[in-house]
Each structure stands twice: as structure tokens, then as C-alpha cells.
Description:
The chain is mainly alpha-helical. Helices cover 77% and strands 0% of the residues. Helix 4 (89-106) crosses helix 6. The model has no long low-confidence stretch (mean pLDDT 90).
Amino acid sequence: MKAKIKEDAESQFAQQADQKLMADVTDFLIENTKFDLPAEFLIKWLQTVGEKKLSPAEAEVEYARSEKGLRFQLIEGKALSQNNIQITFEDLKAFTAKAIRAQMAQFGQTNPSDEEVEGIVARVLANQEEVKRLSDQVVGEKMLQLFKEKANAKVKEVSYQEFIAASYGE
């Protein structure tokens, strides 16, 4: 029992460490990759693009709120292109199957058949919104692997309290 608890805790902390690495590298790239966005054009575009038309002031607020995200999308696209990283339908199916198996295991179904999982995968991937959401997750996973390979990260062993403080600012 102790071994299983330890294994689960280590897995959870590894995921949190990956999230922290992703956030730190993303923030670093956004802050240190300098390029100009066509702010005036984007503000005008934001005024007309949504269901509700925005005033110039509302569009400026929306632009300010989304500027970092836009910057990261451009950085991410360039990184994917420069490193020949592509997302295939097979990548998407494998990621979805893995996620479904993990979710089933949480509910006590530890050994679903391949046919059962494939059927669920087919239903999930028939929904375009789910395909978009899952594709974004696959891209995130590939970006994390790229960051782990390319970033000059240093492994630092810390106590539980230090890890919580670093991860959550507590």
C-alpha cells in the first residue's frame, strides 16, 4: 500500500513539475522574445470579430488581456516549425486512448479491452470541439518535450514545502 501511495504521489509531483517547467519556460519566452505585434490593426479587428461589437476602449482592454497569448501562439508556431514537429491523427488517437484508459482506471476499470477504448476514441474524435481541445493538449505535450530537450534546466531537489512554495507561491 505504501509503495502504491508513493508511486501515485511521485507521478502527481512529476506532473506538477512539468506544469511548472512549462509555465516558467512560456513566461521566459514571452518576456524575452521581442517582436512587434500590429496592435492598432488587432484592436480594430477585435472590435468587429466577435458576436458582440466592441467599442474602441473595450477592444483595447481585450487586446491587453490577450496579447501574451497571441505572442506565445506565434512563438509556439515558430518553435514547432523550426523543429519539424507535427501533430498526426495517429498522435491524436494515441493521446486520446491513453487519456481514456487513465480516466477509466480512476473509476476502477483497470483493464478495458482495446475494442472498447477504440470505440470511445472514435466517438470522442467525431466531436470537432474535442478534436481541437485534444490537439491543443498534444501540442502542449510536444512543446513540453521540446522544452525538456532544449532548455538548460537544472534539476534541483527540494523538500515538499519548498516544492509547494515554488509551484503555488505559498
